[in-house]
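Case study: N-acetylglucosamine-6-phosphate deacetylase.
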Amino acid sequence: MGSTVIHSAELVDGVRTPDSWIRFENGRVAARGTGGSWRDQACATDEVVDAGGRILTPGFIDLHGHGAGTRAFDEAADDPSAIAEALAVHRAHGTTRAVLSLVTAPVDALAERLRAIRVAAADEPMILGAHLEGPFLDHDFRGAHDPALLRSADAAAIDALLEAGDGMLRQVTIAPEHEGAGEAIDALVAAGVRAAVGHTSADFDTALRAFDRGASILTHAFNGMRGIHHRAPGPVTAAMRSPHVTLEVINDGVHVHPDVVALAFHGAPGRVAMITDAMAAAGAPDGAYLLGSLAVEVIDGVARLTESGTIAGSTLTLDAALRQAVGACGLPLETAVSALTRVPAAVLGLGAELGRLDPGYAADAVLLDADLAVARSWIAGA
Ligand SMILES: [Zn+2]
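Here is what the predicted structure looks like once written out:
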């Protein structure tokens, strides 16, 4: 693999370091520094990129997304090209690694899709694994999940999904107030899978018990759950109170008000991960779509269930989430970048490999123009 030197960049990686350079070799960060010292390190065969003062960040990591470019990851078992086409859209917007989310479906169908994602991941470094958003969700907070397919968790279902995932299952969203949920959280955590609280009617105490039991993610905070009331603090406050829990946020200006997004960042510093929760309509025209088995209408980029008008998945990309964070939400750039890089890497247990641009880390990076549009990206140096 060729080596690359990127110089004269403002490196944003926890802190901002102007006039930085970085050298990639064999898919990893080999060295970094400031000023003109890159010339001492560069070989004649290196590709040299003059960033011209633009911003360079670690590659963006999406913990939760369902597709893009008219394709959904739920199609994986029928047509594996869906994965590559959807990921290509997100890559153009700065995502370098992604966990592929599947909506509620029968356990057999989910197992088949997990196997398809496993096969795809063998050739596609962008794929970090799979996320099951359902079927173990609450009826009243189901969002865009088919009510007929919701069910409680039991050992047989969890075992079948763990076996089909075979190490590629990263995350399972569960409503903790339901029968069997506690045992399911135990089994997932024991297998190294992140248990997430979401699409839930749980109050503060119930959510707190799930986190104490080992759940470590709050699925799209504020959406698909009770909000924060001063006498009924709810699952978001329980997640803020639990130092090992990461809060996902869909920061598209539609799902959560920008000031409430800012509140989440202040309430859980270093523990908010911005996700896309993108559906097939991301990077694709408005119109009629399917989310799992449910009809969705997308108007002006906002996806709603055709039947009920309930807000469904987003059409967000991570670069747009970044712009929203520093724009409407008023967050510092380095905080917003961390919510796309080191925070999601850490929650997956990949904090020593991904999410930073220190020597030894994967050579995943995004070069951004002054308006935070993606100019170029690298995955494992390529
Ligand atoms: Zn989702």
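For the exam, be able to explain this: The chain is about 25% helix and 30% strand.
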